[in-house]
Structure of Elongation factor P:
Amino acid sequence: MASTSDIRKGLCIRYNDDIYKIIEFLHVKPGKGPAFVRTKLKSVTTGKVLENTFSAGHKIDDVRVETRSYQFLYADGETYHFMNTDDYNQIALQESALDTPDLLKEGEVVTILFNTEDAMPLSVDLPASVVLEITYTEPGVKGNTATNATKPAKVETGAEINVPLFLNEGDKIKVDTSSSSYVERVKE
C-alpha cells in the first residue's frame, strides 16, 4: 500500500477494479482546507483516460511492475508486435497500450511495463524523444522566418507535427514523445 505522497508519473495503481497508469498529477495545497492530489489516470486495459482527485494521505493500491526493453517490429492493423532484446521472444500488444503509437517507427527500442504478479504487459513507454524524417510539408516562404510561425509537416510514421517554417522535406527532426511536439532539427 502506498499513499498520495508516492504518486508519480508512470506509477501503476489498482483503482475501481482495473489497473491505471498515472499520466499526470498535481499536488495542490489550497490556502483553506486540506491538501489533495489531482491526477489523470489511463486504464491499461481499455485505454480510457479519467481524472480523479485523491485527498492527502489517501491510501492507494500500487501495482508492482517490471520493465523490459523491447524492439518494435511492425504494426498489423491495431496490433503492434515487439521483440525482447535479451531473449528474442515476441509479444503482440493492442494499440491502446501505447500512448503515442503514431510516433513509433520500426526498429525503435521501447520499455514495456509488466505486472509482476501475472507477467501481463501493462503499457509501452517510448523514449523521451525520437528522430523522424519529414516526408511532406509545404515549402517555407523566404523572409517569413522572423516570427515564431509554424506549419504542419507529415513525418515518416504518418504523424502530423507543427514545425518551424524553415524546415523542408527530407529534414530530420527530434520530436518530444510526451507532447508530440517539435524539439529541434537534427544534423547528419
About this structure: The domain at 129-186 is CATH 2.40.50.140 (OB fold (Dihydrolipoamide Acetyltransferase, E2P)). The chain has a mean pLDDT of 87. The two ends are 49 Å apart (CA to CA).
